Amino acid sequence: MLRPKSYVALVLGLCLGILAPACALGLALSTAAYRVDKNRLASEWQQATHGVTYAPPISLNRPFKTLRLLDRMSEADTIVFGSSTMMGVRQEAFPAGHTVYNFAQSGNPLRSMIGEARYIVGRWGERVKLLVIPLDWALGFVQQPDAPIPADLSAASVASATAAIRPSWRAELIDALSLPRLKILAGVLRDIARAPDRRAAFRGYFVDAGGPEYRCADGTPARDFDFVYRGLCNGFRYDGSATFAAQKPLREGEVAATLAAAVAGGSQYAVALQTQGGEPNPALLAALADLAHRVDRHGGRVLFLVPPLLPGVEAHLAATPHSRALLSRTKHALEAWAARERLTLLDAGRSERFGCQGVEFIDPHHALPECHRKVFARFFAVHREFAAVGAARPPEPRGTAEAHASAVALPSSNP
Fold first, then answer.
1. Cα separation of 144 and 83, whole Å?
2. Regarding beta strands 214-215 and 221-222, do their DSSP bridges make them parallel or antiparallel, or are they unpaired?
3. ∠ CA 158-160-163, rounded to 5°
4. Is the Cβ–Cβ distance between 336 and 405 less than 8 Å?
């Protein structure tokens, strides 16, 4: 029978025997993630191959998307802004003649988009033909009371921001022993154990900057610069859109329950409408109008888009006591602003009117490419002046504001 001191020594020895290797391997993963600039490496690889990739972490994608924008602006003339709600917009949604880069980033608010668009117009205004800017009331972006945020999209700014997020050694050590990191480590070790060439697999995780190149199901090349989502073809395409490979579309049997939760009084969409009493921020709208007129003087266009929501969400909210008046106030304010400033507003909030289906969504506000394609196809079929990049413009209608407003929303979706 072990004595107390011997028992304690045995337990401590077993703990050290487990924790020491785990800590060492966790630190090795962290070091592999930060010892090189993976944003730059992933961007250079995508520019050379036109493949699918991203730089970790995928939720902090502004540096990677900015580097891609800088490369793509030598040819792109159509820029899509937004948060992850717009990441499903692909090159294929636009008519021939548009070269698209989707600059949408996770959690990117409208006030940041304004700064980004100003920077792009200031630097590449003569080549910009179309900017697509979402007015996302469902996430509260148009109602946010803050002013627009200036943007610096230079390579030097990206490098500075990347260097600033590298954690200290103490933070890396704490992260190495955290439960999320240990779960990732367990998955990495499992993948290595199952790999045909374990030595090569070990190098791919702990030594090399990224995993080996492989092919997506459609034949597109892909490479993973992160430890998670290996081999899933998850990340961003050459046009900047997301593959959504790590997310599953709603199944037919899930749509009704998802809709019911989305229109409840405490849902994020109902709460978003309550911000500022449903009134869009006039400072943001004024900045957007000024931007659109500036682009117009350069010979380009701006399309303002209310992004598609899960079929039924907007219609049901418009019928509820808690959101009816607020939604009406938001929509009428946006339409009146567009008419007054002679801007083009495409309201796709009621996506069912464009033929979108529930299975074309991941959740109530993330539409997949097929739904976005339907929305833009309907728009370009009617607004041919937008479809023809650089074509001569027809004269602007000079009727009343009400007459102009009838043409800006397709189809009309007043609650």
1. 15
2. antiparallel
3. 105
4. yes
DSSP state, 236? B
Selection from 133, 162, 140, 132 nearest residue 66 by Cα:
162
284/5 Cα distance (integer angstroms): 69
Cis omega (within 30 of 0) for bond into 134? no
pLDDT recorded at residue 83: 98
Q: Which residues pair with residue 306 across a beta bridge?
A: 347
Output the pLDDT for position 337: 98
In angstroms, rounded to a whole number, what is the distance separating the alpha carbons of residues 175 and 182?
9
**Dihedral (Cα; 47, 53, 57, 63), 10-degree rounding:** 20
Reading the block at residue 283, the tokens are: 């400072």
Q: What pLDDT sits at residue 203?
A: 74
Say how far apart CA 161 and CA 60 lie, in whole Å. Answer: 11
Q: CA separation (Å) from 137 to 89, 365, 375, 408?
A: 18, 11, 18, 17
The number of C-alpha atoms within 13 Å of 136 and in the hemisphere containing its C-beta is 29
Residues belonging to the chain:
415
Q: What angle do CA 22, 24, 29 make, to 5 degrees?
A: 90
* Residue corresponding to tokens 């000024």: 290
CA dist 368 and 364 (Å) reads 11
Burial 151-174 (b: 16+ CB within 10 A, else e): bebeeeebeeebeeeeeeeeebee
Which tokens sit at 68?
């891609």
Cis peptide leading into 4, omega within 30 of 0? no
In the 8-state DSSP scheme, what is residue 133? E
Q: Rounded distance, CA 291 to CA 132, Å?
A: 12
pLDDT value at residue 359: 98
In degrees rounded to 5, what are phi and psi of residue 360? -100, 20
Q: How far apart are CA 80 and CA 90, in angstroms?
A: 9
What sign results for the dihedral spanned by CA atoms 175, 176, 178, 181?
positive
Cis bond leading into 307, ω under 30°? no
Helix and strand tally (H, E) in the chain? 16, 9
Cβ count near 398 (within 10 Å): 8
Provide the 8-state DSSP code for 210: S
pLDDT score at 167? 66
- The confidence score (pLDDT) of residue 399 equals 33
Locus of tokens 């009084």? 265
DSSP label at residue 154? S
Query: Side-chain half-sphere of 387: how many Cα atoms within 13 Å?
Result: 13
Q: Which parts of the chain sit beneath pLDDT 50?
A: 391-415
